[in-house]
Amino acid sequence: MPLLSNLTILSLEQATTLPFLTQRLAREGARVIRIEPPGRGDPNRYVGRKFLDEDGMASYFLPNNCGKQAITLNLGDPEGRAILHSLISSLPVDIFATNNRPSSYAKLGIDYETLKAIRPNIIWLGTTGFGPDSDEAAYDPVLQARAGWMDLTGDPDGPPLVFGLPMVDLGASEHAYGALMKALYCRAVSGEGSRIDISMFRSTVSWMASPIMLTALGEHVTRRGNTHQFFAPASVYPTRDGYVYVAVGNDRQWEAITKLPGFESLADPRFAYQRNAGRIADVDQLNRRLAACTQAMTTADLATALNSIGVPIAKVNTLRDVLEDPLLREAFAHAHDERSGTEVILPPLAEVSDGGLAELSFPPRLGEHNEAIYSEVLGYGAAKVSDLQSRGII
């Protein structure tokens, strides 16, 4: 049985950070019910390619919403807030989560104090751009800029660049996951719920331990392209048929490279390459000389040669290559839609021993589970559900 199969989560969610978190919880067996406003729901439903011949199920929405149920509820209406509170009371809700801005908590009836009064041991999670004391709006690239990430990304003589993935969103999700596990442990020990506030800004800066410390000590840290501040050679190098990333982490590895056939010229005593400090001091010329050696070999032959001497190397894969990687091929998760025949493929979780994961349902349509949940939990008949829908309450 999946580990979290006894948990129920109500999540007022949109965009990426919170859906990514609750999708992981769903994969581990939790019952996740996502709440969206009636009408168009989560804006991400309309972002990306339209794979299905229907609105509200575009590609950007699909990967983070497998395994969930979906209801609509207008929390701007007093009747909608009353229904939410009835759900909190009637469902065995363990976690309520939201990524709304703090100024909306009280007026939507989702603030911690209100929900705690209904269910005292509830775990309440709010993810915001800058924490509960700021109502400033934020998106992932904005936070990358403010937290200094873009100052570290790109070529030294080029403009700052945004990272290729929404790592602020994903990193805050990981921090929220850890905080939830701690809160669940505390509740198991004490029986008490808790409030968790995740600041995406603080989450982002928390990854910057080395650059922040070095900057505070007066060392200049900035963009280095594909190279490393402290180790050389460490960069992307051309091969006869593509590119590889090579990372030399110590002098022993470098010495082993210089003994490979075709790489002997790198041991030239005129250059102080025997020690890492000498290689760092002459890194531009070093990289040009190493590239002249690597581009004479195929990617496969170079990987075989460097792996044989314990030097880390990887082909610069395309995403299609990643899908075919033999270490991952059996680990991808699948969610199939009986209605359209479409299948969503999800990457594996980090844990290798993930045999306790739940079977995933296809991402839900907007309000797909309205009738089931409102009838099952609150006892609403079909006429009541239809009336609420016609008045825009659900």
- CATH architecture grouping of the largest domain: 3-Layer(aba) Sandwich
* E-strand count: 11
Radius of gyration: 26 Å
Order of helices and strands: EHEEHEHHEHHEHHEEHHHHEHEEHH
| Structural class by secondary-structure content | alpha/beta
Q: Roughly how much helix do the residues carry, as a percent range?
A: 25-40%
Please tell me what the overall shape is: elongated
% residues in beta strands:
5-15%
Q: If you consult CATH, what is the topology of the largest domain?
A: Rossmann fold
Please report the distance between the alpha carbons of the first and last residues: 33 Å
Tell me the name of the CATH homologous superfamily of the largest domain.
Answer: Crotonobetainyl-coa:carnitine coa-transferase, domain 1
Tally of individual helices: 15
Please mark out the parts with pLDDT under 50 across 5 or more consecutive residues, or reply none. none
Major sheet attributes = 6 strands, parallel
Mean pLDDT: 93
Give the strand order of the largest sheet, numbering strands 1, 2, ... along the chain. 3-2-1-4-5-6
Number of structurally distinct domains: 2
Task: Provide the CATH top-level class of the largest domain.
Answer: Alpha Beta
Descriptive key words:
394 residues, alpha/beta, Rossmann fold, formyl-coa transferase, domain 3, 6-stranded parallel β-sheet, 3-stranded antiparallel β-sheet, 15 helices, 11 strands
